[in-house]
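Researcher: Go.
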Amino acid sequence: MQAEHLTIFGTLLGARGTILLLGPHEPGFWPALCDSPEWQDSAADPVDRWSRRVITGLADRLGAPAHFPFGAQPAPFLTWAMANDRAWISPVGMLVQAEAGLMVSYRGALEFDWEFRKPEVPTHPCTGCAKPCTTACPVGALQGAQYDVEACRSYVRSDPEQRCLTTGCLARRACPVGQTYKRDAAQSAYHMREFLN
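Model: Structure:
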């Protein structure tokens, strides 16, 4: 799957067998996406369209149905993420994933009609962590039981240094696991611009 710039971000048992959750393989995902026809045609939703094309191609080759977290009938990715063996709720309420940290992004899933032998389950990455994500947000939008979306948007729009807008959410970037993930800052900037629209 790495040839398609995807990696397995978790597995879980589904109704038919095993579901593999797929996310960007870094480094390399963003440059590959930017070179794709979906990005080059300037039409809407290039990341979702790329994901649909690439993961559907994988599904056809492997004989496994594909599922996506977007579209008219999105699959229950949040439920699947919480049921899989490599993601947990972080101290700031977002998912934290074993390899990507708070930079986790699920692009799709493949469902097989047999059970895969699972790798060893990693420990929760927040155990023993100093939790820098809890203090990194300049406006405290990720404290308490709810994510203060409007405080976040307002800050991102008004920050003269454009820190969250140009490199991505500071809380996500503070995650020690995410810092080893090598996500391209341009990818985070793109998603932040989409968040503001």
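Model: The beta strands are 6-13, 18-24, 66-67, 87-89, 95-97, 108-112.
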